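Continuing the series of single-chain predictions for the mutant panel. This is the parent chain; the variants come on the following pages.
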Amino acid sequence: MLSSPTAIQSFRFSTALLAPRERGPALHALRELGILPIEPLPDLRSHMAIAKRILPGVAIMSGTLDGVRQGGTRFGGGAGDDVFFGVNLTGESTARQGGRELNMRSGDAGFFVGAESDVCITRPTPVRFVGLRVPLKTLAPLVANPSDAGMRVVPREARPLQIWAPR
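Parent structure:
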């Protein structure tokens, strides 16, 4: 569950200045400290450059990821359900939740409802992305049965995603 900060919090991290052998341990440290649920994929060279902002009621993360797995462990303020919406600006990702799997191509978005530990996104090749995380209880009054939305791909051709399309 997303905590409710009283002020804007921000976090930036990049592996750009780390030697390749130092990147895996740095990503493990982020995970172990509860900062970000991320880990390197075996036998791949990992890279990460992200910015994360936590505002009252929403978290926004953007950047590039390569050779990593994201999610799969509870982090943050509790065990509640959240809504996750992420757009692959470039690159491809595979998401897993509750025994289901979906593939997101460049320009596609993923929509997930559930506890953070239920969602795992694998990014074996470079992906540039932007993602939002909102507590389910925030959207519940605005959307009929938001928890029934589950896991979905919003294809890049969908009109709402055209704001991300290059001109």
